[in-house]
Please model this.
Amino acid sequence: MSCPYARNGADHDDNAAPLGIDDGMIYGEYLMLDKVLNAQRMLSTRDKRTVHDEHLFIVTHQAYELWFKQIIFELDSIRELMIKIIDESKTLEIVKRLNRIVLILRLLVDQVPILETMTPLDFMDFRNHLNPASGFQSLQFRLIENKLGLRSENRVKYNQKYSEAFGDNPDATNLIEESEEEPSLLNLVQTWLERTPGLEEDGFNFWQKFQDSVDQFLDDQVKSAMQEPSESAKNYRLMDIEKRRNVYRTIFDPKVHESLVSRGERHFSYRALQGAIMITFYRDEPRFSQPHQLLTLLMDIDSQITKWRYNHVMMVQRMIGSQQLGTGGSSGYQYLRSTLSDRYKIFLDLFNLSTFLIPRDRIPSLSSFMRNQLK
Ligand code: HEM
Model:
């Protein structure tokens, strides 16, 4: 077939040796636009009643899938850097690539309103052609979730069977299995956090110092509450302090921590959580500045994915309401709404760190040895 994106409309031969830069490829050849721009097959044309908006529907999904591909490319490279990491020389590159993922995700969130220019009636005009195709079968979306570290047991029940969507495609099934087995970004970040300098019990022993500081802080608050002239105000304050103590118990008692992990309410190992808190407190020290940036970007990734899930579910309600099943066989809107839960946040623990912060003047001072370590 004559190809308008090749020089002189030349035929594109799939079996020919790939063109090298020296062969003088032109724009369309380099980008293989003959393939990309010929991949919009509108099913509604089969009825001889082409639905204008089906074109937008296809292009939007394809644009998403291309960006998903780029996210996976970045994610794989970040994971590789983190597996190899023995010193901190790679942190800047990791931060750069994580930031790129965040920016792409922002774009994906902002892309939703473009598809919303299609009205539900326009969508109805071609929706019957889609069955049984559904975004639920997006292999790349599942790979992103798995590579980030979403565990099967944290998915809502319907979604726990997500891999069945690829049942008769061995390549897809293999990729899914690999992505479930290989170390996820969450695993790798955890291992990295566990090595945070300053956690060593026979060294700076941050965790013990932090615990002492919290105890002192709460004891001082009790003393101050006892001075309260009003009995009811005093009791209220004491009750509040006791509640705070119980909240801190969830991080200081390893057994409570483990039970939260087993319920899917906390994801990091005990030591990784300590590392994350330490980095948050001393983020102004030069050696912790990039690690702190890295942790912020991980939260940004979760935020953007949650925003995408929210925008998508709003769009779904607008297009098909809340009572129609999805073409993938789920309850549609109801199912998607349940994926907005915290169980889907990979780096949930980072969001919850703020619960455990203490005022700046209560943060344990660094020893001069430790300060030197963090230079
Ligand atoms: C008119 C627009 C859309 C409608 C009505 C719609 C509808 C749905 C519904 C009902 C589901 C639940 C699964 C099912 O039973 O089918 C779903 C899942 C999904 N859709 Fe869409 N969708 C739309 C646009 C998009 C776009 C543009 C993307 C971009 C890739 C997308 C990606 C996904 C993904 C990844 C899932 C799986 C989500 C999960 O399981 O957590 N959808 N969609």
User: Anything to note?
Assistant: The chain has a mean pLDDT of 93. The chain is about 60% helix and 0% strand. The chain has two domains: 1-39, 40-204+255-373. The first helix runs from residue 27 to 30.
